[in-house]
Design a protein that fits this description.
Elements: H1 2-7, H2 23-42, H3 58-84, H4 90-101, H5 114-136, E1 167-168, E2 176-177, E3 198-203, H6 222-229, E4 244-246, E5 252-254, E6 261-262, E7 272-277, H7 289-306, E8 325-327, H8 328-331, H9 343-351, E9 362-367, E10 379-382, E11 409-414, E12 422-428, E13 432-439, E14 450-458, E15 463-469, E16 479-486, E17 491-497, E18 506-509, E19 511-516
Helix pairs in contact: 2-5, 3-4, 3-5, 7-9
The structure holds zinc ion.
Zinc ion (ZN) binds near residues 202, 328, 334 and 336.
């Protein structure tokens, strides 16, 4: 009886044939319903902390506010009329409004539209009703199960959806939508629970330099991006967000529940989970082994829980509609994660069971950008300049392109000129199959027949392979030289980029990748 009269919802209203519910059940049912009402009333409502909330009976208080608000706005409009007609000054009208508002709003409060203020009051009323009920519901949600982060905010889940993630830090509510949320173009027609069947890989490009005055001041810490996502977007039309953020060290922070929609790819948010990675895509080094491995473990877990197959775009299929793991650049207008993201390695990690050391994919990259001096008669060249950058520097707001070298620099020489070959060496200490590949940038006049030889010194005699590459094409990706089988006793590999060629042009030496594929 108490429930019916004070809250207006009969505890057994949905099932009249069943008769009165036991008291405990009725209380819990009412609690759940009121929490749903609260979630609905506050969805999409920006509620300000500054509203007065110290009323002794908040339910009665907000009911009165809702009845009073239309009168307040009528008064406001009448005042504006009087000002227009020159019968009152603006100051007089403002003073009068302040006086009317003093019991509800704090001093200096900028009144929104009538609709906005009503929505705020209704959200606050729904919250007050739920809290009053929760306070008297036995063994249910306690009065304040999680610290509420604002009058209108729905409590954040206390734990991430995936056991692979390290923490849940709630994104600002304007940065996500809830399936069924009225007024949201993305969520209004979406039914809960939403179906999830794809993940989208991003890198958190940032327009703000890490070092003031230096647009290429690498890195932009992911922590700074996570902090920003807890605030409302500076441009309300661009509420960008993702479900997960993977840092260089492999730490994963979830910011939006998978049940809700994040705003990460226009037109593809309803059925996807968005994963951002540290920190910018203008250099290869943020893509660490830990980042790749932990990100792949997360994606394996998401696919397992939502029961979809992992089909990697560019590896398992070239059809974007058939892929379930794809980059933002494939389906959106952004360049991330960019060519430095190693899809082949990532796809191998997605196929790995995550535990067996013998089958763990491994990757090793040697790049001339790390070398102190080039071999004799090779020139050090900077990668192509990008608007807003200087020299080899690409601003943090841009990804590298397939024209770019792997890192800041590459080496260049003229075919058949006198000098030494460029040589890369690598130790392979674990049994398995290792693929050796080459990367070069786009350089006009590059040699169409660059000769490369690879040798693996191992027990039982060396293995050798020769290959010829057209370096005027296939830039900005890994070009396979050979796959070696390394015995249990390991091996020592050498890759040589030769100056001698059947063609004229520039010979390019940039980066070598060794990928353990089996
Ligand atoms: Zn993106």
């Amino acid at each position: 009886m108490y429930l019916s009269s004070s809250i207006g919802i009969p505890p057994n209203g949905t099932n009249p044939r069943r008769g009165p519910l036991p008291w405990r059940e009725a209380m819990q049912l009412a609690d759940r319903r009121l929490f749903d009402d609260y979630s609905r009333a506050c969805a999409g409502v920006t509620v300000l902390e500054v509203l007065r909330r110290d009323a002794t009976d908040p339910i009665a208080f907000w009911e009165r506010v809702i009845r009073w608000l239309p009168r307040l706005f009528e008064l406001k409009r009448a005042g504006e009329r009087l000002v227009r007609e020159g019968r009152r000054s603006q100051a007089e009208i403002d003073e009068n409004l302040r006086w009317q508002m003093r019991h509800v709003y704090p001093p200096g409060y900028a009144l929104g539209t009538e609709q906005e203020e009503l929505a705020r009051a209704q959200c606050a009323l729904a919250k007050a009703r739920w809290r009053a009920q929760a306070a008297r519901t036995p063994q249910s949600a306690p009065v304040n199960p999680f610290p509420l982060q604002g009058l209108g905010q729905v409590p954040a889940p206390p734990a991430p959806d995936s056991p692979v993630a390290n923490a849940f830090v709630a994104a600002h509510m304007a940065r996500r939508c809830v399936p069924g949320q009225a007024g949201s173009s993305t969520c209004a027609t979406l039914v809960a629970p939403r179906a999830i069947g794809r993940v989208v890989i991003h890198t958190a490009t940032s327009s703000s330099p890490a070092v003031p005055g230096n647009p290429c001041g690498n890195p932009v810490p992911l922590a700074r991006i996570i902090a920003a996502v807890q605030n409302p977007p500076s441009d309300p039309s661009k509420p960008s967000s993702a479900h997960y953020y993977v840092d260089r060290d492999g730490t994963i922070t979830q910011m939006i529940s998978e049940a809700n929609v994040a705003f990460h790819v226009i037109g593809h948010n309803r059925d996807t989970v968005g994963i951002e990675h540290a920190d910018v895509c203008n250099q290869p080094d943020p893509y660490t082994t830990q980042l790749y491995e932990r990100s792949a473990a997360l994606v394996r877990d998401i696919a397992r829980r939502h029961a979809f197959r992992l089909v990697v775009f560019g590896i398992d299929t070239n059809d974007a509609n058939a892929a379930t793991v794809l980059g933002h650049s494939t389906i959106g207008h952004h360049g991330d994660p960019g060519p430095y993201w190693d899809w082949e390695y990532y796809a191998a990690l997605l196929r790995w069971d995550g535990v067996t050391p013998a089958t763990r994919p491994q990757r090793f990259v040697s790049m001339v950008s790390q070398a102190v001096t080039p071999p004799t008669d090779w020139q050090v060249r900077s990668r192509t300049q990008v608007a807003g950058g200087t020299g080899a520097c690409i601003p943090n707001s841009h990804c590298a392109s397939t024209s770019h070298s792997y890192g800041d620099n590459y080496w260049k020489t003229t075919a058949n000129s006198a000098g030494t070959d460029a040589e890369f060496s690598f130790n392979l200490n674990r049994q398995g199959q290792y693929k050796v590949s080459l990367w070069w940038p786009k350089v006009s006049g590059a040699c169409r027949a660059t000769e490369v030889s690879a040798v693996l010194q191992k027990a039982g005699g060396p293995a050798m392979a020769n290959a010829v590459f057209d370096q005027s094409r296939n830039n900005g990706k890994w070009n396979d030289v050979h796959t070696f089988t390394v015995p249990q006793t390991g091996g020592q590999g050498t890759l040589r980029i030769k100056r001698a060629s059947l063609q004229a042009g520039h010979i390019l030496a940039d980066a070598v990748r060794v990928l353990k594929v089996a």
